[in-house]
Structures
1.
Amino acid sequence: MKYPDRVKIVEVGPRDGLQNEKKTVPTEIKVELIDRLAAAGLPVVEAGSFVSPKWVPQMADTAEVMSRIKRRDGVSYPVLVPNMKGLEAAIAAGVTEVAGFAAATETFSQKNTNCSIAESLRRQESVCRTAIDAGLRVRGYISVVLGCPYEGDVKPDQVADVARHLWDMGCYEISLGDTVGMGTPAKTQKMIEAVCAHVPVEKLGGHFHDTYGQAIANILASMEMGMATFDSSVAGLGGCPYSPGATGNVASEDVLYMLDGMGIETGVDMDTLLDAAEFICMYLDRPTVSRAGLALSLKRRKAA
Ligand code: HMG
Ligand code: MG
C-alpha cells in the first residue's frame, strides 16, 4: 500500500475545540494556545470564527484573538465565516484565509446555519467571489458526510453534489466533515470515491470527529485513497454545538503519533505539541482524551 510521503495537519482545536466549551475561554488563553500550536510546526491553525455570537458565543472575541496572535511566516490562520457579514469582519481583522461551511443534509443545514443547503451555498458563493477578489484563500467544509445526527444515513452522492458546488465556486480545498464520527473505513472510501468524481483527491481534507473511535482508521483509509490533508484538534478538544452527542475531533497527538510511526513527514514537533495540550488541559481542568498524548506525557514526566 502506498501512503503519502507528507501529510498536512490542519489544527482546528482553537475553533472546533473551544467553540464547544460550556464556559467561555478568555482571549489570552486562546492566543497562547494558538501561538503554542504554531510554534509546534503546524502549518495551519484555525483561529476562530466570525459567526453570530447569539449562535456561538464562545467565538465572539475572534477579532481580538486575531489582533493578538504572533503571526508566523508560513503559517495560515483561517477563520470560519457563514455569510458576507462574517467575511467583512474577517477582512477587517486582517485574515488571509477563510473557511465557508455547508452541510450534506437539509436538517443539519437548518440546525447549524438556519437555512437550506441551497441558500447556504448561495451565501458561500458570494463569500467566495468577494474573498477571492480581495486576495483571500477560501477553504470549504462539508458537514455530516458520513452520517447525520438528525437524518441518519447520508448517501455519498449527497456529499459529492455539495463538494462540486464548493469546488466550482473556487474553494482551494474541501474538508469532508464526519461531524458525528459515525463513519467507518469502507464507508469513508466510498464517500471519497464519489467526491473524487468532481474534486481532485489532493484537494480534499478529512475532518473526523472521534465519537466512535473510528477517526484514526478513517484517516488511514483516506490515505489509501490518496488523501494527504487531515484536520485534528489538540488534546481531542471539541464538537459542534449543533451536533448533539458528537465529541471532539481526532486528537492531533494521535494523528502525529501514527504519521511519525509510519515515517510520514508533517513538520510538527511532538514535544511542543504535548506542551500545548498540557497547557490547554490545565486551563480547562480536565485530562486529555488523546491516548498517545496521555501515554507520551506520562513517559515524559517519569523521565524528568
Ligand atoms: P440567523 O439567525 O438566521 O441570521 O443565523 P440573521 O441574518 O437573521 O442574523 C441574526 C443576528 O446575528 C443578527 O444580529 C445579525 O447581525 C447577526 P441582531 O440584529 O439580532 O443583533 N449575525 C452575525 N453576527 C456576527 N457575525 C456574523 C453574523 N451573521 C449574522 N457572521 C447564521 C444565521 C448563519 C448567522 C447563524 O446560524 C450562525 O452564525 N451559525 C453558525 C453556527 C456555527 O458556528 N456552528 C459551528 C461551526 S460549523 C462546525 O463546527 C462543523 C465543522 O467543524 C465541520 C464538521 O465537523 O462537520 C466546520
Ligand atoms: Mg468539526
Note: The chain has twelve helices and nine strands.
2.
Amino acid sequence: MKTKALYSGSFDPLTMGHMNIIERAAKLYDELTVGVIDNPQKKTMFMPDERKSMIRETLIGLDNVKVYHFSGLLADFVNEGGYNVVVRGLRGTTDFDYEIQMAQMNARLFQEKVETVFLMTDPRYSFISSTMVKEVFSLGGDITGLVPDVILRKMSK
Ligand code: COA
C-alpha cells in the first residue's frame, strides 16, 4: 500500500527544524504533503499563499513532496485527502504534552486508521521556533542557518 503522509503547521516561517523533519519524512513515506494551515486567528508575517509558494521554492528537488494550504479541521483534510500518516516533530518534553492531546483528539476524528508519527527534532534545531526566529530577525539579529536561504531572502525583502 502506498503511504501518504501529511506534515502540517503554520510555517510562519519555515525553519531548518521543519526542513529537517520534511527531509526525513520524505525518505520514510511514498508521498509527503506539507499542509500549510490558514488560521485567520493567528497573526502571521506571511499570508498562507506566500508561505506555500516560499515552501515550494525551498523544496524544489524533493520530488515526492507536495505543498498545499488548508483551513478548518486537520482531521477533515486528512479524511478527504486519504492520508495514512500524520507526521509531527517533537523538540522536547514541552512539545509532548500538547502533541499527545492533539494526536488523541485527531484519532477520534479520523474516519480510517491514521497513525500520528513523531520524529525527534535534530538536536541542532531543538531550540528553534518560528516566533523566536521572527523576533531575532526583527531586532536585527543574524538568523543565517536557522531558516533555509530562500526563506531568509524573502524575509529580508
Ligand atoms: N522545528 C522547529 N520548530 C518547530 C518544530 C520543529 N521540528 N515543530 C514545531 N515547531 C514550532 C513552530 O515553529 C511553531 O512555532 P511558533 O509557535 O513560534 O510559531 C510551533 O512549533 C507551533 O507549531 P505550528 O505549526 O505553528 O502550530 P501547531 O503546533 O499548533 O499545529 C496544526 C499546527 C495545523 C497541526 C494545528 O494547528 C491544527 O491541527 N490545526 C487545525 C485545527 C484542528 O484540527 N484543531 C484540532 C486539533 S486536535
Note: The chain has a mean pLDDT of 96.
